[in-house]
Write a structure and sequence with these properties.
mainly beta; Neuraminidase; five-stranded mixed β-sheet; 2% helix; Sialidase; glycosidase; Sialidase_sf
């Protein structure tokens, strides 16, 4: 968000409806990616027959349907789109879970029925066949269930690809609890591993790369909680570490997904990034989607816990999940759920 000379701050925005819901065709769970080479935004969502999570039938893209056959898989359905771009091979990865049954049933019965799949696309605009990585990650056998994102993952400057995720774990004689973690790859997406989990209860999450005063990379994580305040953490080779922020971010009611990105500091300082976070601002209900900015994500102790601005509300009224993308030169895009009965996914460009 950038103030222009002679203009009021935050006064410039464009709004476009990308996916419009109607009876029998509901769009939820936005994911957004900006291709800097093509100067193009790619918007994804779940297509459902109702608002119920268990009725997802396909993943859709703003320019068409992602070619994923969902009709021959014994009730399995695609959910939680999460896009991440691999810059060396110029490949867009679209991760998602393929799952049968409800999340609640899996949690209550400690019966993980979720699978981790992805498809890829290069400049020819053709989507690949589905690749599954579930069976090469033995940790999954010990989870009650899991999901990714949703929204977007990142690739760090060093080349590591990161897909944010969370899993419900715990002894079979106890109720499973959710914990955020990441899938990551250091070989351009050929093989994948699991990070250690955040010890605090944490659900849907996103991550962003920032730098300390010595130019060292740090990964910031912002996760949904079960009420109160958002969970904020940093990730290193030892795993996740919760942090105590200078300004806590309020969670909404029983929780809601939120989106976070890092972007070049508008002050022009080299090797410095700021953070942008998007989430409903009402502490009780999913209302009034707001954008928060953090110009100093590292405090004097170099923990990822700098001060967040007050929110700028970009959608008054019923608001849900969202996903942010940095375009360039201070421009951002936000793909959001808005509306109550007639839900739609709406693209909001801001600077």
């Amino acid at each position: 968000l950038r103030k222009q000379k002679g203009e009021k701050s935050r006064s410039n925005n464009e709004k476009t409806t990308v996916f419009q819901s109607r009876e029998g065709e509901i769009f939820r769970i936005p994911a957004l990616y900006y291709n800097n080479n093509e100067k193009k935004l790619f918007a994804f969502a779940e297509k459902r027959t109702t608002a119920d999570d268990a009725t997802s039938v396909a993943l859709v893209m703003s320019e068409g349907t992602v070619d994923i056959d969902t009709k021959c898989s014994c009730g399995y359905r695609p959910m939680n789109p999460c896009a991440v771009y691999e810059k060396h091979t110029q490949t867009l990865f679209l991760f998602f879970i393929y799952v049968i049954g409800t999340e609640g049933f899996q949690i209550d019965n400690h019966w993980n029925k979720a699978r981790l799949w992805y498809v890829t696309k290069k400049s020819d605009n053709k989507w690949s066949e589905v690749t599954e990585v579930t069976d090469v990650l033995p940790e999954m056998k010990h989870w009650s269930t899991f999901a990714i994102g949703p929204g977007h993952g990142i690739q760090t400057e060093s080349g590591r690809m990161i897909v944010p995720a969370y899993a419900y774990t715990g002894p079979e004689n106890e109720k499973a609890a959710p914990h955020a973690f990441c899938f990551y790859s250091d070989d351009y997406g050929k093989t994948w591993r699991c990070s250690k989990m955040l010890s605090e209860a944490s659900i849907e999450c996103q991550v962003a790369e920032i730098y300390d005063s010595k130019g060292h990379s740090l990964i910031y994580c912002n996760a949904r909680s079960q009420g109160g305040y958002r969970v904020q953490a940093e990730i290193d080779d030892r795993g996740f570490h919760a942090i105590t922020p200078v300004t806590p971010l309020v969670e909404t009611g029983g929780g809601c997904e939120g989106s976070v990105i890092s972007f070049p500091a508008q002050s022009g300082e080299p090797n410095t990034k700021w953070l942008l976070f998007c989430h409903p601002t009402n502490p009780k209900e999913r209302l009034d989607l707001g954008v928060y900015r953090n110009n100093s994500p590292l405090n004097s102790n170099e923990n990822c816990s700098g001060a967040w601005s007050k929110p700028w509300v970009i959608n008054k009224g019923p608001s849900g999940y969202s996903d942010l993308a940095y375009i360039e030169d201070g421009w951002f895009a936000c793909l959001m759920e808005r509306g109550e009965k007639t839900e739609m996914i709406f693209l909001h460009k801001i600077y």
